[in-house]
Amino acid sequence: MRRTGFTLVEMLIALTIFGMLTAAGVALLTLTVRTQATSERLLDEVGELRRAGALLNADLGQAAQRLSRDRDGRPRPAFIGAAGDGELLLALVRGGNDEEPLQRVEYRLRDGQLERLAFARPDGDSAAVTQILLSGVRDVRLRYRDRLGDWQPVWNVSDPTRLPRAVELLSDSEVHGSVRQLFLVGNGR
After folding, report:
1. What CA dihedral angle connects 155, 85, 53 and 133, to 10 degrees?
2. Residues of the chain below pLDDT 70
3. Are 139 and 162 in contact (CB under 8 A)?
4. How many whole angstroms separate alpha carbon 181 and alpha carbon 38?
5. Which of 61, 77, 128, 188 is the most exposed place for a label (fewest CB within 10 A)?
6. CA–CA dist 176, 73 (Å, integer)
7. Strands in the chain per DSSP E
8. What residue ranges do the domains of the chain occupy?
9. Count of CA atoms in the C-beta half-sphere (13 A) of 64
10. Strand, helix or coil at 153?
């Protein structure tokens, strides 16, 4: 009479093959999870840079040739543009619509963070809503294109209502490295 079943050697071979398939599956799953985490981190980093560029593009694209006034009533130029060697980088009055009136917007580099400050009103001293756009910023350099097509290191013109045609932003950060962005100001005229 012949018995049916598996021998000990056959069972050991089957368990070894099952163990190898399980180990390969775990390795593949681990690699997939690591790849997913890296992809999410990189997408967040690129998204951060795109959001900062989109806000700058919107603000500079709606720059108004309107003077603003400080809390003491002294006039400020329509556009202030620094080279990037101080805390204040840009200050301008941004145009709006019926739902969103004119507002003053400033960009600052403070403690390695590029910040956007949006003031409720273009004149006087109002509270600002601060938004951190980029972190880990090591350096920022700005240039401004004038009507003749020349690039200026700072925006310092005799007519306080004149806007530059374009702004170049060179930033160096720990996360993004060196990035060059160009933005049209106002209607670009």
Report:
1. -130
2. 1-2, 97-100, 187-189
3. no
4. 25
5. 188
6. 41
7. 68-69, 75-76, 79-81, 88-94, 103-110, 113-119, 128-134, 137-145, 151-152, 166-173, 177-184
8. 56-184
9. 15
10. coil
